[in-house]
């Protein structure tokens, strides 16, 4: 299958090793990725969707029209991009007035949009289109003997009616099964479904409280699991849960659980070069990388 | 003390024109699962819903807490009355942006100028080292498209009204 690759901004700008991992692993699983020339900010919820509906629609419409022009559905890793694009598509597809307005805004610049292109999260495609069996067969360096914990991207769970693909949404299992397909044991813990807390203005306005919120998750991981590493599938979860551990370690206690995006750990299991697919991190990944 | 006599009873229509808002019964489900309810000051979406329903315009305009929302949509999923608290949160931000230009997120000026909040176009060395195409299909690579994108944004309501913010970027 072919999908339009919507990278967003954080991945190519700050964690391009995740982009490398996605570009290497997906075609190996039969998912070819097509770039979208001229894509812009998703728009992130804190930008146009917090300004007015007009500009929100215009920017969503811009991005969706790029995929629509190529007749492609979109593949997205970033949780915020995924959710924002799905909300935008919903408005354009199902609300006639809004569709008319967005086309009025796009028309002078020679674009149109109907909302035909679907917006897919990468874990949805991996689980529902590729399937765990095919993933297991695609790897030659399984994670046997290792314990993992997973972090679900909130934007892929809620509101389930709009963004969901796991069932039931409040008891998600896709991330777990995807990691188990690589041979690791996934340990449960009491704060598994807690948000990372890294998006929006929470950390920016209340750094100490956001740190404390994340600490409850890491303390639960430390006391309840044997986790060797953590797997996420959202660029915000990745950056925040990795970086916040350094901040936490400046207080009492040691927080040093390596965090990987799913496609990074998949790429490692497929035998791709760790220096290309997983070199950028705050908490050292050496303990895991030396296996590969 | 809050004086309800001076309240704007039609505020809810202006902020979040949804009948569902009236069904909010203060159960606090939206607060108990909210990551930003841990912020300082806490985001209490239940209280914001009350302010909108009661018409407390001045108080609502002063609220910074809607901006701490992490957009996780837990409240949206679990509100038993389908009030759509997350949409309400964004609606309050939009209402504030309409009524107080200092609320307009500065990030939209960055997006107007280069398409993103992050400098995606500048990361060429690192991309090369990772074996990635140095140039991304980002809009900054297509000046003609960027011009069109800006032109489109200039027609939208809040931006055209505050065009001075975008001059010379
Ligand atoms: S969960 Fe819904 S009904 Fe309950 S307080 Fe929040 S908005 Fe109101
Ligand atoms: S969407 Fe915002 S208000 Fe709702 S639970 Fe998440 S952080 Fe809180």
Describe the structure.
- The complex is a heterodimer of chains A (292) and B (169).
- Chain A is an alpha/beta fold and 292 residues long.
- In chain A, 59% of the residues are buried.
- In chain A, the strands form two sheets. Chain A has a four-stranded parallel beta sheet with strand order 2-1-3-4, with helices on both faces.
- Chain A is built from 15 helices and eight strands.
- Chain B has 169 residues and is an all-alpha fold.
- Chain B has a single domain, classed as Fumarate Reductase Iron-sulfur Protein, Chain B, domain 2 (Orthogonal Bundle).
- Chain B is built from ten helices and no strands.
- Chain B is globular, with a radius of gyration of 20 Å.
- Chains A and B meet through helix 1, helix 2, helix 3 and helix 11 of A and helix 5, helix 6, helix 7, helix 9 and helix 10 of B.
- One iron/sulfur cluster binds next to helix 2 and helix 3 of chain B.
CATH class of the largest domain in chain A: Alpha Beta
* CATH architecture annotation of the largest domain in chain A: 3-Layer(aba) Sandwich
Q: What value does the average pLDDT of chain B take?
A: 93
State the major sheet of chain B.
none
Give the assembly state of these chains.
heterodimer
The end-to-end distance of chain B, rounded to whole angstroms, is 45 Å
Q: Which fold name corresponds to the CATH topology of the largest domain in chain A?
A: Rossmann fold
Helix content of chain B: 40-55%
> How many helices of chain B in DSSP terms?
10
The total count of strands of chain A amounts to 8
On the 0-100 scale, what is the average pLDDT of chain A? 96
Alpha-beta classification of chain A? alpha/beta
Shape by Cα distribution of chain A? globular
Structural class of chain B: mainly alpha
Q: Count structural domains of chain B.
A: 1
Q: What series of H and E elements makes up the topology of chain A? A: EHHEHEHHEHHEHHEHHEHEHHH
Strand percent estimate of chain A: 5-15%
The biggest beta sheet of chain A is recorded as:
4 strands, parallel
Strand arrangement, largest sheet of chain A? 2-1-3-4
Number of helices of chain A: 15
GO molecular function (chain A): oxidoreductase activity
Protein name (chain A): Heterodisulfide reductase
Pfam families (chain A): CCG
Keywords (chain A): Oxidoreductase
């Amino acid at each position: 299958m072919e999908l339009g690759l919507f990278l967003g901004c954080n991945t190519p700008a700050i964690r391009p090793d995740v982009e490398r991992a996605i570009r290497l692993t997906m075609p190996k699983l039969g998912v070819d990725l097509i770039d979208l020339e001229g894509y812009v900010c998703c728009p992130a919820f804190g930008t146009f969707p917090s300004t007015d509906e007009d500009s929100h629609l215009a920017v969503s419409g811009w991005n969706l029209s790029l995929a629509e022009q190529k007749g492609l559905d979109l593949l997205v890793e970033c949780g915020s991009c995924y959710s924002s694009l799905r909300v935008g598509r919903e408005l354009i597809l199902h609300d006639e007035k809004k569709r008319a307005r967005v086309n009025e805004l796009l028309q002078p610049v020679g674009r149109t949009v109907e909302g035909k292109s679907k917006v897919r999260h990468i874990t949805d495609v991996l689980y529902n289109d590729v399937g765990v069996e095919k993933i297991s067969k695609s790897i030659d360096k399984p994670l046997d003997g290792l314990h993992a914990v997973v972090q679900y991207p909130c934007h892929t769970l809620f509101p389930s009616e709009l963004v969901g693909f796991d069932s039931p949404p409040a008891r998600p299992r896709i991330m777990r099964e995807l990691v188990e397909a690589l041979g690791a044991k996934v340990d449960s813990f009491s704060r598994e479904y807690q948000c990372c807390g890294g998006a929006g203005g929470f950390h920016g306005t209340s750094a100490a409280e956001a740190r404390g919120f994340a600490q409850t998750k890491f303390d639960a991981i430390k006391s309840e699991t044997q986790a060797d590493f953590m797997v996420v599938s959202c660029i915000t979860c990745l950056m925040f849960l990795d970086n916040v551990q350094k901040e936490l370690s400046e207080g009492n206690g040691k927080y040093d659980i390596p965090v990987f995006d799913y496609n990074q750990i998949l790429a490692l299991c497929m035998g791709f070069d760790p220096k290309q697919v997983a070199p950028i991190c705050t908490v050292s990944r050496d303990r895991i990388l030396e296996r590969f | 003390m809050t004086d309800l006599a001076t309240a704007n009873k039609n505020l809810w229509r202006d902020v979040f024109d949804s009948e569902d808002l009236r069904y909010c019964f203060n159960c606090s489900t939206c607060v108990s699962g909210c990551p930003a309810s841990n912020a300082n000051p806490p985001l209490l979406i239940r209280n914001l819903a009350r302010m909108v329903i009661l018409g407390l315009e001045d108080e609502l305009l002063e609220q910074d807490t809607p901006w701490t929302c992490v957009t996780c949509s837990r409240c949206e999923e679990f509100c038993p009355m389908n009030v759509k608290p997350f949409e309400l949160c964004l609606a309050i931000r939009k209402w504030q942006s309409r009524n107080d230009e200092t609320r307009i997120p500065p990030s939209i000026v960055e997006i107007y100028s280069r398409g993103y909040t992050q400098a995606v176009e500048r990361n060429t060395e690192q991309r090369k080292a990772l074996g990635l195409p140095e140039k991304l299909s980002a809009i900054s690579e297509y000046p003609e498209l960027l011009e069109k994108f800006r032109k489109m944004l200039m027609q939208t309501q809040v931006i055209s009204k505050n065009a001075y913010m975008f001059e010379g970027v």
